[in-house]
Amino acid sequence: MSIVGFLSEKQRDRRFTEQLLSSPEGSKILECIQCGTCSSTCPLSHYMDLTPRRLIYLAREGFKDLVLRSRTPWICASCFNCVVLCPAGIDISGVMHALRRLALAEGTYPRDEVIPALSKSFYDEVFRHGKVNEAKVALAAKGLRGTLSMMGLGLKLWRKGRMSLSAEKTRSPSEIREMLREVAGS
Ligand code: SF4
Ligand code: SF4
Q1: 91, 41 in Cβ contact below 8 A?
Q2: Using CA atoms, how far apart are residues 103 and 86, in angstroms rounded to an integer?
Q3: What are the chain's domains?
Q4: How far is the CA of 88 from the centre of ligand 1 (A)?
Q5: What is the pLDDT along the chain (186 residues), one digit of tens a residue?
Q6: 39 lines ligand 2 (CB under 6 A)
Q7: Is 52 in the pocket of ligand 2 (CB under 6 A)?
Q8: How far does Cα 70 stand from its chain's mean position?
């Protein structure tokens, strides 16, 4: 199911294209020849609202809002099928990563998808404490009712020491924060 409707010049944001072109992952998007190999080999394109070919096209043409609100980057499993076969050598999986980063930074991501909320909560937990509290991440991603419905699984993990109910920290969360800031280039 495509989310592309009528496209107008007003929707285009050239700075978005520049932003992608200046990222290591998106530096080659202008070389896309729209052959469709990525879409035809992607095992998940059936579930995407924009196929990888369309996503690359709309991204390079600057349709920022449409691209960042798409579910496609969140569905991509980074299997690299498309990357290996792309005749233009585009790091399509990397572009998906870059788009996820931008979408989270701008708060422009599909609100009905669980993966963005999960990613954001995971990142925030690591940023604050250096470690992830699984219960908090589950709450952010699934809400109270969804989390309670997974209590059985949670108890099994807790008994095996794979899940903590108390907030844990690394010895020096500030070092982790520094690393994350460095990676984000902030
Ligand atoms: S396989 Fe590469 S060149 Fe072909 S449409 Fe996909 S991104 Fe573009
Ligand atoms: S890396 Fe993502 S877009 Fe490419 S084939 Fe795999 S799931 Fe599809």
Answers
A1: no
A2: 24
A3: 9-106 (1.10.1060.10), 114-184 (no CATH)
A4: 6
A5: 556 667 888 889 999 999 999 998 999 999 999 999 999 999 999 999 999 999 999 999 999 999 999 999 999 999 999 999 999 999 999 999 999 989 988 888 888 788 888 888 888 899 999 988 888 888 888 888 988 998 899 899 889 988 887 778 889 999 999 998 887 764
A6: no
A7: yes
A8: 10
